[in-house]
Amino acid sequence: MAKTRAPISTKQPAERVVLFRLILPGDTDEQVAEDLRELALLTKTAGGEVVGILTQRRPHPDPAYFIGRGKVEELKQLVQDVGAHTVICDDDLKPGQVRNISRILGENIKVLDRSGLILDIFALHARTPEAKIQVQLAQLQYLLPRLAGMWRHLERQYGAIGVRGPGEKQIELDRRAIANQIAILRRKLAKIERERKIQRKRRKNLFRVALVGYTNAGKSSLLNRLTGAEVYVEDKLFATLDATTRRLSDGEHTILITDTVGFIKKLPHHLVESFKSTLAESREADVLLVVADSSHPAVEEHIQIVHSVLDEIGATGERILVLNKIDLLTPEQLAYFRRRYPDAQFVSAFQGRGIEYLKSCLMEMSEEKKIC
Questions:
Q1: Strands 207-213 and 244-249
Q2: 138 and 88 belong to one structural domain
Q3: Domain-embedded: residue 52
Q4: What's the pTM?
Q5: Which of 63, 180, 186, 240 falls 20 to 30 Å from 343 in CA-CA distance?
Q6: How many CA atoms are closer than 13 Å to the CA of 287, on its beta-carbon side?
Q7: Parallel, antiparallel, or unpaired for β 287-293 and 15-23?
């Protein structure tokens, strides 16, 4: 009897990653634990596997290494012990800090910061031409100030003699090339924004609602529940990058509900700038449903972060807090949130609880323009 061969797996093994974080005066143990948990989730979303964590308490970041030089040596030993390929900092690193850390860890170890990781996830999840342009623009703006550091690193590696001139010339050529590409992408986005403005003008007489919130709060699931849509849903950070609009109608009134890109702590400024056309849906909505995962241990901080980003982008619509995933709460936790946020809507997009009441509130608001 012929033997059957086991199927050959073509799945790439996960990239092994060590996380590191600086603990500054005023950082609580809970805050540090939550930040590292979120960074681990981001790493998993990007296809990595966290195999080690390193922290250091300092009064301020080291200007040359972010963490102290001795701690970078400790990081190197940890990377070797666990067989990691990449280290990720839970903050933004300056180009010189990346270069200095790389010099100690070795050329084969990738050094990333939080913004670089988030940009990588956005690039991974960008599906439409608009999202791809927005992510590419943010990546180039992130890369531009790091060019000189990359070339200085190359010069030190091979020696400055005979390389300095061409290196400086190459930096300038690269800068020009990237600046030209940024200009092209901005023109493309400006064209898309003009088209979006025309679309929004056509919808001017319709009541518009935007779903906003921290990433993975359940906005897409809520859109599906409210409108019967079948928008892509996945239990991952930044699964939705494109604004998706669906109609909700009771036969008498029609509401446009838009699902938008999720927010996160320390959202890279380049991304906020690049996604202006997508975020415009939030800016111009009549009502903003601020969706929060009520089961998340840092839900109150998430709500504050969302309000801060909405203020930053100039969103002026009426805001209604929608606490989602109440099916995951104990009766005591639910009672606490009802006392803490008496004007909030309490729903479970998974079970459908509270959805009909939220729909009726939105319909009433569309008719009378008042908060329910």
A1: unpaired
A2: no
A3: yes
A4: 0.77
A5: 240
A6: 26
A7: unpaired
CA angle, 304 as apex, 286 and 317 as ends, to 5°? Answer: 10
Cβ atoms of 141 and 172 closer than 8 Å: no
Are residues 168 and 88 part of one domain?
A: no
The total number of structural domains in the chain stands at 3
Contact 78, 153 (CB under 8 A): no
Task: Please name the amino acid found at residue 123.
Answer: A
The answer to whether residue 62 sits within a structural domain is yes
Amino acid type, 61? P
One pLDDT digit (tens) per residue for the chain, 372 residues: 444 444 444 456 789 999 999 999 999 999 999 999 999 999 998 889 999 999 999 999 999 999 999 999 999 999 999 999 999 999 999 989 999 999 999 988 999 999 999 888 888 877 778 888 888 888 888 888 777 555 444 444 333 333 334 445 566 767 788 888 889 998 988 887 787 777 666 666 788 999 999 988 999 899 999 998 776 556 556 665 567 888 898 878 889 998 887 888 887 767 777 676 667 778 888 999 999 999 999 999 999 999 998 998 888 899 999 999 999 999 999 999 999 999 999 999 999 999 999 999 999 998 876 545
Q: Which residue range forms the structural domain that includes residue 88?
A: 15-122
| Chain-centroid distance, C-alpha 58 | 27
